[in-house]
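Sorry to interrupt, but I need a hand with the structure work. Go ahead and set the record down below:
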Amino acid sequence: MTLDHSNLSGRPPGRFVALASRLLPGVREVQEQIEPYALAWQRHNREALAGTGPLWVALGDSMTIGVGASAYDRGWVGLLAARKPGWRVVNLAISGGRVRDVPPTTSTPTRPGTRAWPTSSGPPSGDRLVRSGVEPDRCRERDRCGRSGP
């Protein structure tokens, strides 16, 4: 199975972030994580899709990619994934991502016969949408798509 997805939005940073990046080394360092972390998740996603086992799909923004953490897999998605041995994780987050960036035709990349469990785990974030096996039109409340599974 292949996945044609980029974790980069293609949008430039906003004016405030661009200015802060020029003036504050810490902001610049965090901004410099975006592309390498996005590319690392893309490699990880390809490997996860080639595997077997339960599948967890995460959608969100730079926080879901792990920007600001010491490594791409040390953000909340990577840390939670480490606590779920045997589970595959596909991180479809986009740095600067917004809920409207998720097309209504997006579906969970699963193979026939596999199951993906809905989740609403993770820290609060304005544009966070975490999903596993749930179509957007089935979600009645933002970030609450039902709970089932182990």
About this structure: The chain has one domain: 15-138. The helical segments are 15-23, 25-31, 34-50, 62-65, 76-82. The beta strands are 55-59, 88-91, 129-130.
